[in-house]
Write a sequence for this structure.
């Protein structure tokens, strides 16, 4: 069984200065940021963002579980949980097979399509880690000044 230090650098809440620096860096990359003091405030905000009938995907997250968002997304009558539907799909053989398919098959086709429609080539921008957002404000990151999850 693993033991965890009770007072490590990873369990300390960020300072106001660190939060402001993070907000500025994310905004500089076209990502909208909102900051809340509690998980309850964040949960209400996120639920208000989701239009009725929308398809919603939420990654597995202890934080989302703790604030009750996972439960509300997976059992909502107002929108559709994509994560619930994903469990019924036939999976790609391996992660590398999936990434290779994106690079060698999907990306060239999408790039050709965007060149025709928008006059510019596409790019592989979002694979688990988001480096930037091409359209400012399209992504919203919610920061909570409360110790939640891990």
């Amino acid at each position: 069984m693993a033991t965890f230090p009770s007072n490590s650098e990873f369990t300390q809440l960020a300072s106001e200065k660190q939060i402001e620096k993070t907000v500025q860096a994310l905004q500089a990359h076209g990502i909208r940021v909102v900051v809340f003091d509690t998980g309850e405030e964040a949960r209400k905000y996120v639920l208000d963002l989701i239009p009725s009938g929308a398809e919603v995907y939420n990654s597995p997250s202890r934080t989302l579980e703790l604030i009750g968002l996972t439960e509300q997304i997976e059992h909502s009558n107002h929108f559709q949980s994509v994560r619930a539907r994903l469990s019924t799909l036939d999976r790609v053989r391996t992660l590398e097979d999936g990434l290779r398919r994106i690079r060698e098959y999907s990306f060239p086709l999408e790039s050709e399509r965007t060149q025709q429609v928008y006059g510019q080539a596409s790019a592989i921008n979002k694979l688990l880690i988001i480096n930037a957002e091409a359209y400012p404000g399209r992504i919203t990151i919610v920061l909570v000044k409360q110790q939640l999850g891990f």
In short: The mean pLDDT is 83.
